[in-house]
Design brief:
Elements: H1 2-23, H2 27-47, H3 51-75, H4 80-84, H5 87-110, H6 116-119, H7 130-138, H8 143-164, H9 176-181, H10 184-187
Helix pairs in contact: 1-2, 2-3
């Protein structure tokens, strides 16, 4: 009974916060509702026994993505009224894309079938929790795809930095090689001034 009550509470708060993410006019409030949505989704994953997914959701999405997005929204002076002016113009295209996605989700849910053999995981002599079992499968059976996915993410990050990095001619940049090649005689001049003839 307590498990069912917790499920309905988490689900109701999750749906309400997800609705407020879209409906909130203030972007900072929308990000805060997004963080609340992530926390409730993590609670639902905990109820289902997927504690690894719940912790990843809290650590990665709440701790990094949502907070970073919150700082970006707060630091950038974005004119959201200007962004909302083209809302009605793109509303038919957005509604068509949303309808197509809804039809695909309904078709996928109607033809969903679970293989009984996929659920029959051999647990003889493996008294381990969910996180350890997932790590064992990930780093043994899927080690090479895991490493390749990490390499792809690294290349994507370097590519994003290279595409957004701009060189401005009016900004002076530090040249370490020129600084290291300089000699003391090039930048400091020593003069011997007689007593009483210095400039005050």
């Amino acid at each position: 009974m307590l498990h069912a009550i917790a499920f309905y509470v988490f689900a109701a708060v999750l749906l309400g916060s997800a609705l407020m993410v879209v409906a909130a006019r203030n972007p900072v409030h929308a990000v805060l509702f997004l963080i609340l949505c992530f926390f409730n989704a993590a609670g639902l994953f905990l109820l289902m026994g997927a504690e690894f997914v719940a912790l990843i959701l809290v650590i990665v999405y709440v701790g990094a993505v949502a907070v970073l997005f919150l700082f970006v929204v707060m630091m950038l002076d974005v004119d959201f009224r200007e962004l909302r002016r083209g809302f009605r113009r793109y509303l038919p295209v957005g509604a068509a894309v949303g309808l197509v996605l809804l039809i695909e989700l309904v078709l996928m849910a109607s033809h969903w079938a679970v293989d009984p053999q996929a659920l029959a995981v051999p647990t003889a002599g493996m008294n381990v929790d969910n996180t350890r079992a997932l790590g064992r499968v990930l780093y043994t059976d899927y080690l090479y795809p895991f490493q390749v996915s990490g390499l792809i993410l690294l290349v994507a990050m370097v590519g994003a930095i290279a595409l957004t990095h701009r060189r401005r001619p009016d900004v002076r940049r530090q040249r370490s090689s020129a600084q290291l090649d300089r000699k003391i005689s090039d930048v400091i001049e020593t003069r011997k001034i007689e007593s009483g003839r210095g400039v005050l």
